[in-house]
Amino acid sequence: MATLIGSILVFLIVIMLHELGHFTIAKLVGIKVDEFSIGMGPEIFQTQKGETKYSLRILPIGGYVAMDGEDEYSENPRSFNNVSVLKKMAVVVAGVIMNFLLAIIAFFFIASFIGYNTNALGQIVENSPAQYAELKVGDEILSVNNQPTKIWEAVATNISMAKENENITLEVKRGNEILKKEIKPDYKDGVASIGIGPKSEKSFLSSIKYGFNKTVFTIGSVFTTLKLLFQGNVSVDMFAGPVGVIQIIGQQTARGPIYLLNILGIISANLAVMNLLPIPALDGGKLVFLLIESITGKKVSDEIEGRLSFIGFGLLMTLMLYITVFGDLKRIFNW
Q1: In this protein, which residues make up the domain named PDZ (predicted)?
Q2: Is 324 helix (H, G, I), strand (E, B) or coil?
Q3: d(C-alpha 197, C-alpha 120), whole Å
Q4: How many domains does the chain have?
Q5: N or C terminus: fewer CB in 10 A for the chain?
């Protein structure tokens, strides 16, 4: 039951704020909004306020903002199709921005409540590669192999991903001095380590900075994973589909509210990035169509946009089904 409640809560928050972004900007630029809906499928609640219908639907797997003139031509001067391209772009990108903000806020609350691990060293293990390289407690790790490391997660991830038989290059700040350190790591089960631990910190202002940096790191991790996927270095079945995400949320819910906040931030940031991909049926695809319109001065025909969006939606559903069957279910039932 905790898994179900936690999953519904996370999905509803992420979806509601995403759609609220679209809705708010649409209202601000004067577009007529016919319906604001959270969830899909049959209605379980609806109310009318002014020109807009507000509804809650039974399946917490999506939502939408129905704007006049979005899917079909309208002569209403307040319709989506009759406002400027910049206003359309603002409406489309607003949902993604809200998801980025949600991630920042979630990570900020975590840091505010329990503190966070900085990129400064709080521990050096004896007889470790770090000790032999003369690293010291208080050293701030600025980069690992030329990859910026503003938070501890970035330090740990970049070190663990180091290739065997290759040294790790650290850029270290010690007081006012910037040092370069070449370290040969230890390996256990193919994972590199150099024997260091982080320094923890807890303050309001630094928590805001951490929330932003953790969101940037999460976004970067998504792009890195996509890059590895296209390079053939990771398999699609390593991704989590709807079933896998629900399982992960359930596991984090059982561990406590802080872990639930963390997965909320991660999912929100991931959703923002995926929505920006230039695939028809996603916000990124809509932005591409609007960019073409801004350059050529001509709107992509509704027929072409509709067909491409249908194809894009079909490909996304096929991919989701594949990940669910050969990723989620395979892991659960150990096929």
Answers
A1: 107-176
A2: helix
A3: 9
A4: 2
A5: N
Q: What is the DSSP letter of 119?
A: E
Task: Give the range of the structural domain holding residue 130, as residue numbers without chain letter.
Answer: 117-201
Residue 219 placed within a domain: no
Please say whether the beta carbons of 18 and 98 come within 8 A. Answer: yes
CB atoms within 10 A of CB 137: 12
Question: pTM value?
Answer: 0.88
Looking at the fold, whether 106 and 250 belong to one and the same domain comes out as yes
In a domain, 316, yes or no: yes
Is 19 an active-site residue?
yes
CA distance linking residue 40 with residue 33, whole number of Å: 18
Q: What's the pLDDT tens digit per position in 101-151?
A: 999 999 999 999 999 999 999 999 999 999 999 999 999 999 999 999 999
How far from each other are the two terminal CA atoms of the chain, in whole angstroms? 26
Q: Helices (DSSP H) in the chain: which residue ranges?
A: 2-28, 85-114, 129-132, 152-160, 204-230, 242-255, 257-276, 283-296, 302-323, 330-333
Q: Is the same domain home to 52 and 122?
A: no
